[in-house]
Amino acid sequence: MSQIDARFDSQDATLINGHDATTVNSPQTAAKTAEQTAEQPAVEERQWEATPQDSPEPGAEVPPEVPPVQPQLKDGFQEELVIRPLHSGDIYANFQFRTMWETDFMRGNKVSHYRLFPKSLGQVISKFSVRELHISFTQGYWRTMQWGQPFMPSPPGAELWVWFQDSVTDVDGTWKELTNVLSGIFCASLNFIDSTNTVQPSASFKPLGVANETDHRFLRYATLPREIVCTENLTPWKKLLPCGSKAGLAVLLKSEKLFHSSFHSQTVHIRPVCQDWQCKTISWELRQTLNVVFDLHISGQGKREWSLFKMFSRTLTEACPLASSSKIYIDITDNPQGEQFELSPATTLLSQAVVLGDRRTFSVYDLTQQNTFGNLRSLNLLIRWKSTEGEMLRPLLHAERYVAGYGLQTGEIHTLMYNNHPYRSFPVLLLESVPWYLRLYIHTLTVTSKGKENKPSFIHYEPSKDRVRPHLLEMLIQLPPNSVTEVTVQFERALLKWTEYTPDPNHGYYVGSSVISALVPSIVAMDTNNTQERPLFSSFFPCKMESSYFVRIYTEPLLVNLPTPDFSMPYNVICLTCTVVAVGYGSLYNLLTRSFQIEEPSPGLAKRIANIIRKMRGVPPL
Prior knowledge:
The chain is α+β, with helices and mostly antiparallel strands. The chain has helices at 3-21, 27-39, 119-128, 144-147, 171-186, 231-239, 255-258, 308-312, 569-593, 605-617; strands at residues 75-85, 91-101, 130-139, 157-164, 198-199, 219-224, 263-274, 282-294, 305-307, 325-331, 341-344, 350-355, 358-366, 382-385, 397-404, 410-419, 426-434, 438-449, 452-453, 458-462, 471-479, 483-493, 509-511, 515-521, 548-554, 558-560. It is elongated and about 135 Å long.
């Protein structure tokens, strides 16, 4: 560790742990703290007063005072907000809320008391024997070449993958019931997840928590790329927080601001983790994350200046009372001397963390310290750009996907994977889940790099069954340095039954994103010790290799047109039938029901004049 790193770490530890050190001290220190608290100005909050007790009578024995035993809490809550100014002028905000609970759901024990952990999710874990649960709702597509790599990647739409315990006998039945329950909890369309869009990956999704075995029979993965994320999904997500949206960082989560952005994603991750470095005690971790990117031009500001109030229409006044840690991190790695942008109010608390293989420097604002809010008891961070110069480093790995071909019979799926490292190659694991109505021709599968064939070292393929299950294709491919690897496969479009088409069949049908998992080369070693204090956004994906870090990226979803019949033909048939019935049957009915009578022809004009004259003369008419 260099002297600069040591200085940052020591300063961070001193300033962060300073508040906690003053709460657990000797009685003399506690008395001094009470005197200092009494000298502070009164705050408009309710204070509980001690009930006066009767003084003991003279001569009576006074029992010794027994200090109350404070019960050790087995749960905790932390919240963080990371703000990264992007080179495009946009702002990337990442919320992290972590709830830890030392309990045991795996043995079937019924837990009746919930303090910080949401009861709805705890009952789901117990009832369905869930070992890990990962769910995300995303609106928009993450633009890797403009924004870099996100802290928590997620595909457009809804994504759900679950590891069940080995005690589950009927995994498919439990999976179906679980999706229906989660659909009600998060007010989403997860009930549309069935066997036709569920796969069982064999290598792409490993457990992220403590796991003794990885039997992929207990893993299920599904996506809904057309799922629309809106306020009804955000509201139940916020209710899972211990403080809800009433205090802490969650007060910034206003739907009218979050959904007026370029990208929005909210996730829920539940997994068992180690409580200590020896992993003798296991705790359950609930991590809720929310990623949002605010566009400079959509906001209508016209200038590169951001603040908490402009982004969220709110400022921060307090931390969540139930949170043991509440911090805001501002990424100043590209702004060491303040030549790119100005940050106010300034802070002397700095922290360094390894994020996606790169050592980043952050300005830290501790919300548990009252001096953070200033005299106005309000924190409104302001970022004002000074210069537009500077280029973002290209991510070492990113991918694209598109559909080629013409007509509505056949087509071709192209997946492009870019390795931008100048001299190192690394393997990637590609997962493709294609619906059954796109019938893949696996014999046309080709993988090329730099114009040459690149033979995968591992291929796992499960063919689809019509109206039963989708295609599953997993490949391990070595990406050469500074190259573009293209994976192509041809398919044929199936003709659906007329009852299987959506209400808007001409819009097309969505195909879920490809999933690419890789160990990308890194210069900085990632620390795997979970007991050390570090930001939450840097400690989700585990990595043990010092020369690489784990990353998972998603491609764009595909929109494919299928052969669609002319649904106006029934209308045309009805019109033609009604016309034939009206003309044919109407004419025949008139002929059968009409009565005919013979009428004499009317007399001429001369004859009528003669009859009038004869009538005037009293003579009978002609």
